[in-house]
Amino acid sequence: MESTHELFHSIHQLSRRLTKHLNEALEPYGLFNAQWSVLFVLREKGTLTQKELCEYLAVEAPPMTRTIQRLLKQGYIEQISCKDDKRKKFISLTALAKAHFPLWEKAVLEKNEELVRELPASIRGELKNILTDWLKQI
Question: HTH marR-type domain spans which residues (predicted)?
Answer without folding.
Answer: 4-138
